[in-house]
Amino acid sequence: MIYSWTRPTVAIDIPPGSASATPVALKPLPQLIFASRWLQVPLYLGLIVAQIAYVFLFLKELYGLVRHVMTFDEQNIMLIVLGLIDVVMISNLLVMVIVGGYETFVSRLRLNRHPDNPEWLSHVDSGVLKVKLAMSIVGISSISLLRSFVEARSLGMPGSQITANGVMWQTIIHSIFILSAIGITFVDRLSSAPKPGVEHHGG
Fold first, then answer.
1. Does the pTM exceed 0.70?
2. Torsion angle, alpha carbons of 27, 32, 34, 35, to 10
3. Average pLDDT of span 13-20
4. Residue 116 pLDDT > 70, yes or no?
5. For residue 70, is it within any domain?
6. Does any domain span residue 179?
7. What angle separates helix 126-151 from helix 74-95, to the nearest 10 degrees?
8. Is a pLDDT exceeding 70 seen at residue 61?
C-alpha cells in the first residue's frame, strides 16, 4: 500500500511596504473612497499659510522688543518673550499636524533617508499624534497662563487687561487640558497594550 504525502501550504504574510508585495487592484467604489483622502491636501496647505502668518507675527513681536528694549521694564520684556515662546509652540504644533497628519492620513513622505527626518515621525500613528497634540496644547496653555500670572501684578489697576475672574477661568481650563491629556494618554496606552492570551512573534 502506497501513501502519498504532500507538503502543507503555509500562508506567509508579506509586509505592505516590502518589494515582493504585489499591488491589488481596487474596485471603483473602494478606489474612490480611498482616493478621497487627497481632499485633505488643501487643508494642510492652508495650515502652511497659517504657519507663514505666525512667522510674520513672530518677527513683528521681535521687532517691537528690539525697538523698545531700552524703555521697557522687566515685566514688559518678560511678557513679550513669553508671547514669542507661545508663537513658537503654536508653530511647532502646526508642523506636527501638517507633517504627521499628512504622513498618517494622506500619503507617505518617504523621508527615511533624509538627513532632517524627524525622529518622532518614524513611529507616529493616529494615537501617538493625538498624545503629542494634547501635550502641545497643554504646553501652549501653560505659557498663556504664565503670562496671565505675570500680568496679575496689575490686577485692580487702571488699564489692566486681565481680571481675577479671568485668571481663575484660565486656571480651570488649563487643569481641564491637563486632565484631557492624561485621559488621552491612558486610553492610548490601553489600546496599544498587548491583549492577554495573544502571542506576538517578532521577525
1. no
2. 130
3. 48
4. yes
5. yes
6. yes
7. 170
8. yes
